[in-house]
């Protein structure tokens, strides 16, 4: 894990966000504070609509917070965006259907104006890193959903980002593919030393991929709990069998749903986390 936030990790300090659309005002976030040291891995989990994507979009310079400070590597999201220090991968990361995988992976560098030979080299490297070697000349429609997500991750990696901001990147995938990609992502994080901030609805995915899981409470969203995952960075599938894994799961369930969650009778109301 990286050193302190002095070295320029992700900083979210007292961030608030109010969306105004015509006569509708939505307070999406209030007083959110979170520090992720450089090289650290963190996840945001919480009920649907609690503001997880908003927080990520603030860091990715897609929206500006209405109060507070967000820093990426010690600078504002806008400066980080110009310096290309972060990459964003979402559930619907789009692949242009008429371009082959190699050309899709090159896209980020093409937009950034990098010359053809250099972007080809970076794209080939990234494709190898995500395990898609041999599929460079395939069209997106010829790949599985999991392979397309790997291609989206490869495209993000060509930018050699210090920060990977991921919004439900594996949300549309089946459990087996998802778990496989979780461990591939861990390998990539170790190889690239990138800092991760992941939005996920899966408690187990959050534990597998994080040093810190931040739990958000809804309306307006704020960070209500922080659970440190003490597995270090050498992780294998065996971590799931570690009794500590089950203890983290219980702690996070408790933080999300309250004390009665693990033994809730069927007649009890559905917890807010499950309401869409
Ligand atoms: N562009 C927008 N304009 C107005 N309101 C918005 C906008 N984006 C999000 N919101 C509102 O802000 C709140 C937080 O939304 P956000 O997408 O950040 O939540 P989330 O936790 O990521 O949800 P989910 O888990 O369902 O993806 C919601 O009430 C949502 O309706």
Cα end-to-end separation: 35 Å
Strand order of the largest sheet: 5-6-7-3-8-9
CATH superfamily of the largest domain: P-loop containing nucleotide triphosphate hydrolases
Number of domains: 2
Can you describe this structure in just a few lines?
By secondary structure, the protein is α/β, with parallel strands linked by helices. It is 33% helix and 24% strand.
How would you describe this structure to a colleague?
It holds the Pfam family ABC_tran. This is NitT/TauT family transport system ATP-binding protein. It comes from Kaistia soli DSM 19436. InterPro entries: AAA+_ATPase, ABC_transporter-like_ATP-bd, ABC_transporter-like_CS, ABC_transporter_ATP-bind, P-loop_NTPase. This protein is 33% helix and 24% strand. It has 276 residues and is α/β, with parallel strands linked by helices. The protein has two domains: 1-85 and 164-173 and 186-257, P-loop containing nucleotide triphosphate hydrolases (Rossmann fold); 93-160, no CATH class. The strands form two sheets. Strands 5-6-7-3-8-9 form a six-stranded mixed β-sheet, sandwiched between helices. A three-stranded antiparallel β-sheet has the order 2-1-4. Strand 6, helix 6 and strand 7 (195-199) form a beta-alpha-beta unit. The longest helix has 18 residues, at 175-192. The structure holds adenosine-5'-triphosphate. Residues 19, 21, 26, 28, 46, 48-54 line the site of adenosine-5'-triphosphate.
């Amino acid at each position: 894990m990286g050193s302190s936030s002095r070295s320029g990790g992700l900083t979210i300090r007292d961030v608030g966000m109010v969306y105004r659309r015509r006569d509708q005002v939505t307070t999406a976030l209030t007083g959110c504070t979170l520090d992720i040291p450089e090289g650290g891995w963190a996840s945001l989990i919480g009920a649907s609509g609690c503001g997880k994507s908003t927080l990520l979009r603030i860091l990715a310079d897609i929206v500006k917070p209405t109060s507070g400070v967000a820093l990426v590597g010690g600078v504002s999201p806008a400066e980080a965006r110009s310096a290309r220090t972060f990459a964003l991968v979402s559930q619907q990361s789009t692949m242009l259907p008429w371009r082959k995988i190699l050309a899709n992976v090159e896209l980020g560098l093409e937009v950034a104006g990098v010359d053809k030979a250099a972007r080809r080299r970076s794209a080939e490297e990234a494709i190898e890193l995500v395990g898609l070697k041999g599929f460079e000349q395939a069209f997106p429609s010829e790949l599985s959903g999991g392979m397309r997500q790997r291609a989206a991750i490869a495209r993000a990696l060509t930018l050699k980002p210090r920060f990977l901001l991921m919004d439900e990147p594996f949300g549309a995938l089946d459990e087996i593919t998802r778990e496989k990609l979780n461990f591939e992502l861990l390998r990539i994080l170790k190889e690239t030393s990138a800092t991760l901030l992941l939005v996920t609805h899966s408690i187990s995915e959050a534990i597998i991929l994080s040093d810190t899981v931040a739990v958000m409470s809804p309306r307006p969203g704020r960070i209500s709990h922080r659970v440190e995952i003490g597995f270090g960075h050498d992780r294998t599938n065996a971590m799931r069998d570690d009794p500590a894994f089950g203890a983290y799961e219980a702690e996070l369930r408790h933080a999300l749903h309250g004390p009665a969650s693990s033994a809730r009778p069927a007649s009890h109301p559905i917890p807010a986390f499950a309401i869409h």
